[in-house]
Amino acid sequence: MTDKKHTWRFFRAGGFDQVRLDTGADLLALDQLDQKLWVALSCPTQGMEFDPRTLALLDSDGDGHIRAPELIAALKWTGSLLKDHDLLAAGADPLPLAAIDDASEEGRQLLASAREILKNLGREGSDAISAADTSDSAHIFAQTQFNGDGVITVASADDDGLKQLIGEIVEHAGSVPDRSGEPGIDQDILERFFADARALADWRNAPQGDAALLPLGAATEGAFAAFAAVRTKIDDYFTRCRLAAFDPRAGAALNGSEESFLALAAKNLAHCPEDVAALPIAYVEANRALPLDDALNPAWSAAISALRSEAVAPLLGDRDSLSAADWSALCARFAAHEAWRAARVDTPLAAIDEARLQEIAAGDGLALIGALIARDKALEGEANAIEAVERLAHYARDLGALANNFVSFRDFYVTSKGNGHLRAVFQAGTLFLDGRSCNLCVHVLDAAKHAALATLSGVYLAYCDCVRGGEKMTIAAAFTAGDADQLMVGRNGVFYDRDGKDWDATITKLIEHPISIRQAFWTPYKKLVRLVGEQFQKFAAARAKAADDMTASGVLDAQKKAEAAKAAAPGTPTAAAPAGAPAPFDVAKFAGIFAAIGLAVGALGTALAAVVTGFLGLRWWQMPLAVGGLMLMISGPSMALAWFKLRNRNLGPILDANGWAVNARARINIPFGTSLTHLAKLPEGAERSLADPYAEKKKPWGFYLFLLVLAVALLVWAVRSAGQ
User: Fold this and answer.
1) The whole model's pTM is what?
2) Distance between CA atoms of 202 and 362, rounded to whole angstroms?
3) 187 and 43, same structural domain?
4) For the chain, which end, N or C, has fewer CB atoms within 10 Å of the first or last residue's CB respectively?
5) Does residue 579 sit within a domain?
């Protein structure tokens, strides 16, 4: 925490210089280190073997990535609150309370909050706090009446009446979670509840000041329901009557055509009431009143009877019919009530009993609960300091480790080298497959997208789908030792994650690159053996097919000859023409084939004799050099190409494909690659029996080869002697 120029130390790993971050001073001076020397400048918050809460706290802008400025800011803030900065490098967990620097106001408040957390957890007097202690905010705030979030619960009130009112607000106006995890209310919910309560109470009280709103008192509700049920139909009836008065010709059409009644006659009207209800409510005539007792459309008779008894009789007096003027008067009597109903406040508070609602609206609950919320809000600083304790506990434990997986890759290149331990945050676990264990395995979300960039790494990658119960994930495993002869899509293995859980792993995709020099040395010979084997299999298959065809042809010819002989026998009505005579043996053709074969064998023998002669003409010490030179000529190009590719393998594209911004050529050379993939080997001191009861019997091919070479050598010697 000083402007003094820092002295940096570097170590060489992965083919480039990496900064050493051994002390708190190193970490706090990272803002002075040229970012071109950082191994990475950004890393994702997903797919990392790291505490997700720490990553979430670091991701200040919430974009899913941690960048250099965010790491630097976190280190600076943490260093300002610690007395001993070396705790950052060591990873303090738990964090001693004595290590918190209380020289500043923020430090004093944070220290007090840490003690408050321990008190709430039942550990008052403890001298250290861990990240795990701060992880359960619900537990921390469960016993506190106020916690500074501006949300109060039923437990925040001491008065039983306020407890009841807060419960009613939560039930009818909604809630927000308190830091303790309990449902509570904030100022917005409180004000909205009382605004709705008072508006609903005022609406309900309106009829007390205006009798026209309830023309029939308590019976108005039922009367209006009967009125509303037939209002549209009666309006339609009187409109039709006025139209009939306008033009007598309209009367027949307005009452329904003859065709419509004929259509009704063909139906079972007991099952089609809607068709009847569609007809006018009564017979339409010019200036005719609406009958209320008979001559009504049967589909509407019950509704008209209810209108007559509940609305017409109480408001207009009992009568047998209703004129257009009577109907207009009845509508006018309900107009004020209808407007009042339309102004009704639509709120869940309508479920509250009217007497209780009036009590709430007239009471002082708004002020009393508002005071509780203000009291809780006043503790916001202390509560935020409790959140700061969580941040400090996580940072003090994790920032040093993250820096050594971000600014440098120490945990990948140094800490885990050769001991099989997975320390780098991007190492997902270990894959066991084909007699090997692969320690460089990374999480992959989309194998196709990842492979498009990861292939530039020059690393042999196997993408595997891993399944455990109902869970599934995809990994990319780097094979950096051994060979690829038995690696193929569909092969199964077992993947162990960082928690030691085992997953069934199946190869789904391969990116093929050289794995080792040994593999490159044997590749030409394996290809030759494979080619010879394939050609021999093709030749054998062709010969087998030819033999099968010849056998089938012979059987068919024999059958034809038998049928021909039978047809030519005495007494046969008609004899088939004799089959054509077989073609004569072509001696010249046979001799040409034999000569060609002999010529080929002779040429091969001559070439072999020349090679053997030249080899035997060498001195004894030149012979192994010649054999070595021949093998070098065959395997050398493959080995040289593999060597260049292997020494240039790069971790960067593998991580970049996962969202990292790797800032260096993080090489995986041959020695380091060998430490990332371990081949199967017998334990030290193990006993081994070489007797295999099922081993194939060995044939003396070496002896046969020796005899062949000796025969060729004698032949060459004989030819030379004859020439002399």
Assistant:
1) 0.62
2) 11
3) no
4) C
5) no
